[in-house]
Amino acid sequence: MADLIAFLSARLDEDAAAARRAGDSFRQIGETGVIVATEGDRAEECASANWAGIADHIVRHDPARVLAEVNAKRRIVTAYENYDNDAPELDVPESVLRLLALPYADHPDYRPEWAPTT
Fold it and tell me: How many Å apart are CA 17 and CA 104, to the nearest integer?
């Protein structure tokens, strides 16, 4: 499991770094599906009006949300690491770590033996 924990930690580091590089936030404006990335007083159009479905997806994966998700996943991994030390905060079975790793199954470092058993 140590290798799986290291794998997950590296992917979470990558997700967090990508979210931080994306800037402050994304938001949808008007009914056109236009996305605006805001950074201070600057705003840039990131998607055109004819990309409304893509625009909604981008908004739902705002950097702040991704960072919050990374933080939650890190807490699950930490709870698993501390489980043998009687950490009372959360009982995290191995299957949860396998499920957390599953979205990264296409990553070259992912190992097939980490796939969930059920």
Answer: 16
Cβ neighbours of residue 92 under 8 Å, at least 6 residues apart? 76, 79, 80, 83
- DSSP letter at 33? T
What's the pTM? 0.68
Query: Mind listing the pLDDT tens digit for each residue in 79-110?
Result: 888 776 665 555 668 888 888 999 999 899 99
Q: Around 94, how many Cα atoms within 13 Å sit in the side-chain half-sphere?
A: 11
3-state secondary structure of 102: helix
Burial 33-55 (b: 16+ CB within 10 A, else e): bbbbbeeeeeeeebbeeebbeeb
Taking the domains of the chain in order of start, what are their residue ranges?
Answer: 2-114
Q: Which of 69, 63, 33 is nearest to 51 (CA)?
A: 33
* Tens digits of residue pLDDT in 38-66: 555 555 555 555 555 666 677 677 787 88
